[in-house]
């Protein structure tokens, strides 16, 4: 418990520091557009207030407060976070444009002996442009935020993906795995959202429901009522689950027990053999890529998942089954390297949220081999990366709408 609290304090300190740098830059650039010191002070105070809401939102996980208050503060904090993140990006791009203009002007003066001093971005003109473009950036960020908010909380897309598998028997043609991932039930995503997911999934007539991690952001005691609808998932062979990094932040072991009570079969570096008609499919799962940082026996290992057969009562294959397709559930896309080496046909992942909004996709690419969509890794193992069903932090989706995925096996 003490170690988890220390991790939380370190995480909160780092997040607050990084956000503080970003918020400070926004305050500095917006206030620079005014000569009146009272306006400058007002801008800094407003942005400082929104910054302080962020650690308060996280701290609510450790103390008992009315859920309604927690939800109000969380919505305000996360919406401010999203708006200022977009505004920060636009201001940085604007300032880079100013730098580019300065460099071009300097080069023209140097190589063509043109006297442009005072004609291009003089001090007065720069001050005017700064104020005017600040207003433009505020309006643009507001428009993007409004669209992103609508896209995040409105209807989820249903993505249909066909994955070719070599030598797939007729019995497994059209086998349907419906994936949900990165739901993030927590401060701003509640029971109603979970109910809408269950309704959509059950309408898709799944052979298997695959839940690939990051279901929750909070403890079992806080969120049990909001995750209860997931007991209603319906499919031919059941609901299978692998841990995401946020399960570890939220108390992995209690959540594993809670998910079991909802009918989830957790695959922790193990597999089940699913007998479908007269063919057999191996469905394996690994713990989150960083699970070993929390529990030594949760080291993510696709090779173990291939070898270890689960003791779950949901299995209906036998030891003598011929495996016709091998599918791995892994929260993070970077498990694909081990999955390919182990010989899986397909890995199904989430974690990235598709970047959620610019410049997210480019930042995610620094850590993960794939950001979203279907890819063939090393010409032998397919990987599908979902954009996620919910969202984390800012309730914003721009260019990466939420999804529920229908993965259908076809013959290569």
Task: Give an overview of the whole structure.
By secondary structure, this protein is of the alpha/beta class. The chain folds into 2 domains: 2-152, no CATH class; 158-411, Metallo-dependent phosphatases (Purple Acid Phosphatase, chain A, domain 2, 4-Layer Sandwich), CATH 3.60.21.10. It is 44% helix and 17% strand. It has 11 helices and 12 strands. The strands form 2 sheets. Strands 1-12-2-3-4-5 form a 6-stranded mixed beta sheet. Strand 3, helix 6 and strand 4 form a beta-alpha-beta unit. Helix 1 packs across helix 3, helix 2 crosses helix 3 (67-112) and helix 3 packs antiparallel against helix 4 (123-153). The longest helix has 46 residues, at 67-112. The protein is globular and about 80 Å long.
Q: What would a concise description of this structure say?
A:
With 412 residues, the protein is of the alpha/beta class.
Per DSSP, the total helix count is 11
Helix content: 40-55%
Structural class: alpha/beta
The separation of the N and C termini measures 49 Å
Just name the CATH architecture of the largest domain: 4-Layer Sandwich
| Top CATH class of the largest domain | Alpha Beta
Largest sheet, in brief, is:
6 strands, mixed
Overall morphology: globular
Order of helices and strands: HHHHEEHEHEHHEEEHEHEHEEE
- CATH topology term of the largest domain: Purple Acid Phosphatase, chain A, domain 2
Mean pLDDT: 91
- How much of the residues is beta strand, in percent? 15-25%
Strand arrangement in the largest pleated sheet: 1-12-2-3-4-5
Low-confidence stretches: none
Tell me the radius of gyration.
25 Å
The tally of domains stands at 2
CATH H-level superfamily of the largest domain? Metallo-dependent phosphatases
Question: How many strand units?
Answer: 12
């Amino acid at each position: 418990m003490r170690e988890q609290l220390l991790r939380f304090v370190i995480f909160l300190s780092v997040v607050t520091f990084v956000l503080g740098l970003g918020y400070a830059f926004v305050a500095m650039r917006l206030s620079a557009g005014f000569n009146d010191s009272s306006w400058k002070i007002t801008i800094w105070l407003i942005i400082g207030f929104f910054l302080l809401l962020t650690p308060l939102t996280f701290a609510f996980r450790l103390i008992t407060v009315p859920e309604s208050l927690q939800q109000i503060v969380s919505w305000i904090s996360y919406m401010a976070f999203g708006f200022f993140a977009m505004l920060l990006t636009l201001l940085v791009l604007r300032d880079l444009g100013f730098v580019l203009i300065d460099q071009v002007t300097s080069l023209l003066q140097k190589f063509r002996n043109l006297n442009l001093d005072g004609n291009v971005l003089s001090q007065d003109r720069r001050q005017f442009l700064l104020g005017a473009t600040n207003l433009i950036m505020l309006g643009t960020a507001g428009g993007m935020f409004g669209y992103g908010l609508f896209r995040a909380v409105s209807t989820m897309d249903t993505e249909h993906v066909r994955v070719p598998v070599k030598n797939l028997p007729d019995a497994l043609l059209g086998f349907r795995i419906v994936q949900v991932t990165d739901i993030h039930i927590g401060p701003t995503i509640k029971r109603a959202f979970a109910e809408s997911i269950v309704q959509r999934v059950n309408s898709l007539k799944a052979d298997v429901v695959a839940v690939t991690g990051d279901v929750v952001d909070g403890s079992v005691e806080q969120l049990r009522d909001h995750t209860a609808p997931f007991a209603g998932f319906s499919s031919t062979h059941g609901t299978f689950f692998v841990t995401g990094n946020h399960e570890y932040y939220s108390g992995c072991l209690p959540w594993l027990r809670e998910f079991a009570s909802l009918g989830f079969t957790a695959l922790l570096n193990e597999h089940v053999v699913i007998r479908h008609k007269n063919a057999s499919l191996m469905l394996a799962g690994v713990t989150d890529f960083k699970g070993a940082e929390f529990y030594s026996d949760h080291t993510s290992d696709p090779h173990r998942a291939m070898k270890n057969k689960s003791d779950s009562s949901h299995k209906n294959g036998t030891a003598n089954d011929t495996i016709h397709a091998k599918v791995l559930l892994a929260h993070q896309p970077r498990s694909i390297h081990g999955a390919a080496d182990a010989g899986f046909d397909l890995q199904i992942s989430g974690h990235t949220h598709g970047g959620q909004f610019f410049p997210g996709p480019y930042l995610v690419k620094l850590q993960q081999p794939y950001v979203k969509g279907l890819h063939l890794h090393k010409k032998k193992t397919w990987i599908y990366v979902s954009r996620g069903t919910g969202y984390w932090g800012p309730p914003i989706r721009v260019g990466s709408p939420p999804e529920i995925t229908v993965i259908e096996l076809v013959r290569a």
